[in-house]
Amino acid sequence: MKIVLHIWRQKNNKAQGMMVRYELGNVSEHMSFLEMLDVLNEDLTGKGEDPVAFEHDCREGICGCCGFMINGVAHGPQRGTTVCQLHMRHFKDGDELWLEPWRAKAFPVLKDLMVDRSAFDRIIAAGGYVSVNTGSAPDGNAVPIEKQKADLAMDAAQCIGCGACVAACPNASAMLFTAAKVSHLALLPQGQPERYRRVRNMVAQMQAEVLGACTNIGECEAACPKSIKLENIARLNRDFIKASWIFRKDTAVAGAG
Ligand code: SF4
Ligand code: FES
Hints:
There is one protein chain. The protein is α+β, with helices and mostly antiparallel strands. Helices cover 37% and strands 11% of the residues. A five-stranded mixed β-sheet has the order 2-1-5-3-4. Strand 1 (3-9) and strand 2 (18-24) form a beta hairpin. Helix 3 runs antiparallel to helix 5. The longest helix has 26 residues, at 231-256. The protein is elongated and about 65 Å long. The termini are far apart. Bound molecules: iron/sulfur cluster and FE2/S2 (inorganic) cluster. FE2/S2 (inorganic) cluster binds at residues 56-59, 61-66, 82, 84, 160.
């Protein structure tokens, strides 16, 4: 089939970008979306032109590297699917597609469809880990965990850090991402010792980045390729309120001393 692409081309963060039109004939419905872009890039390279920059790694929907807007929708039209897992059979002959990078101040464009998502790395570095020395891998069943909590923790842990939630949010808020990272540890026994310090520090880092505030619009959940639920945001908010109370009490005690 024939596909017409309008792709955001931008040499670097400082350069002015623009949409450039490309036509691809002979697109197979069995190709993944990224394979279709590989074909375009082979054509461009063959003609001595600059290939389109886009990020990818696993191409299996697990690493979180890929992602851009297709006709204004993060990761494209197939719900619960990363762009690397999207296949051309979901499009039809003659379709025109507009591809743009994530649009958010916190994710500056590096080149074409690639953005800098290091804001997410800094949020994780602020507390998205368990800092105890756990030694070698423990036996799988050494710490019993209720099935319901284990399931919820696993659901939250599915966040791949792709950034679609920020790109889809009119406020460019990272609440769904941060809430998923906070939740998956807050639900497990191993996450308890640092639970409230973690939420306080991760929220503080989120606020230090140029990310917006959450106003419960829900675009993030709709765009998330891993179907991370809004209820994780509610959990983060509850833990954050408790953390504010705990740390205010500590400050008051320290002040009295
Ligand atoms: S919450 Fe969903 S959309 Fe946001 S970074 Fe995680 S996987 Fe991507
Ligand atoms: S390339 Fe790894 S999730 Fe898409």
